[in-house]
Design a protein that fits this description.
By secondary structure, this protein is mostly beta strands. Helix content is about 5%, strand content about 45%. The longest helix has 4 residues. The N and C termini lie far apart (about 40 Å).
Length: about 110
């Protein structure tokens, strides 16, 4: 499933084997990529729940779930990458937007 983001080759144009004809995207499931400092990384695990709030639209917060926590820090920034999935079947969140990812850690859910 997906929608056409870009048409690379048009009808009548020559194509080579394994050459892309269109660029497809699936906006029904979005990946959020965030970075967190060392002090926070020890509290974050795959499967944890959180919320993603779209920058500039503070009334637009959607649930998400962490599916990746890097085990190696980015040396330049001293941060760790986190990825979370958003179920966007209703297409409320535009793909490619910036925002804030908040993960509910055990100390916050008590």
């Amino acid at each position: 499933d997906g929608e056409v983001l870009q048409v690379i080759k048009h009808e009548g144009e020559a194509v080579n084997e394994n050459e892309a004809l269109v660029r497809l995207v699936n906006v029904e499931v979005l990946d959020v990529v965030a970075f967190t400092p060392l002090a926070s990384i020890r509290h974050i695990r795959e499967g944890m729940k959180g919320t993603f709030t779209v920058e500039g639209l503070t009334d637009l917060s959607v649930p998400c779930e962490v599916f990746l926590v890097d085990s190696v820090a980015d040396a330049a920034s001293g941060t760790f990458r986190i990825k979370a999935k958003i179920d966007n079947a209703d297409r409320r969140v535009p793909a490619g937007v910036r925002g804030v990812l908040r993960i509910e850690t055990p100390s916050e859910t008590k």
